Every structure is written in C-alpha cells, then in structure tokens.
Amino acid sequence: QYVEEYLSLLALWERGGIVLAPEALPQLRLKSRRMEPCFFASPMGRAFPPCVFGALPRHYVVRALLDSYREDHIYNRAFLPLAERLRDFLITRFGFQMNGRRQTRKGITVHLQRAGL
C-alpha cells in the first residue's frame, strides 16, 4: 500500500488527474472536482483516509507530499499510510480542521462530507 500510494502521487505529479482508491464509490460527482487545482475527498465525514484525490500536473502540494517520502521521520520508518501523512500535512502546513466540512485554503480543497463528493 505504501508503494502504491507513492506511485499514485508520482503519477499525479507528472500527469495530473484524479486518483480513486479501490473503495471509492462510482456515484461520486467527479465532474465538479476537475475544476479544483488540488483536492482530497473522503465520504466518511471526520475519518480521513482520502478515497479520491486529484491535482493539476506539477502541483506544489503533491510535490511536497512526494518530498516527505524522502525525509527521515516516523512516517517513513514505520511505513505509515498516506492518510496519516496527509492529515498531519494539511493540519500543520495549511491549518485545515478535520471537522466534517468542505474547506478551501491556498488552492487546496478538502471534502469531508458524509454523503456524496
């Protein structure tokens, strides 16, 4: 899973687009997500493993997440999943709150609605 998440981020960095986790639901409204430069979405409310995320090619947030795989910290030593890395990254660097609501800061949108994305 660790390698799969890294490779998904790398492909997103190089080509842009949308990454769907295996548990993503087919009824998600992805058309409107294409208008956002960078987004992370989870239909599970406060829980935050993103099941859908996307960005324009070479988006700085995706680059920063990729760079975090090279740093020496607990995420890499313990092979922690992207969900934990991303949650902490969004809270500490951008001030997001995992409060179950849609939030946008500096061109990044986080969707945490309980129904539909």
Summarize the structure.
Helix content is 38%, strand content 16%. With 117 residues, the protein is α+β, with helices and mostly antiparallel strands. Helix 1 (2-15) packs antiparallel against helix 3.
Provide an overview of this structure.
The chain has 117 residues and is an alpha+beta fold. Helix content is 38%, strand content 16%. The chain is built from 5 helices and 5 strands. The chain has a 5-stranded mixed β-sheet, covered by helices on one side. Helix 1 runs antiparallel to helix 3. The longest helix has 14 residues, at 2-15. The protein is globular, with a radius of gyration of 13 Å. The mean pLDDT is 81.
List keywords for this structure.
single chain, 117 residues, alpha+beta, globular
Task: List the SSEs and their pairings.
Elements: H1 2-15, E1 17-20, H2 30-33, E2 38-41, E3 52-55, H3 60-68, H4 74-77, H5 82-94, E4 103-105, E5 108-111
Number of strands: 5
Helix content: 25-40%
Q: Helix tally?
A: 5
Order of helices and strands: HEHEEHHHEE
Span between termini = 23 Å
Taking pLDDT < 50 over at least 5 consecutive residues as the criterion, the unreliable ranges are none
Q: What would you call the shape? A: globular
Q: Whole-number average pLDDT?
A: 81
Q: Would you tell me the structural class of the helices and strands?
A: alpha+beta
Strand content: 15-25%
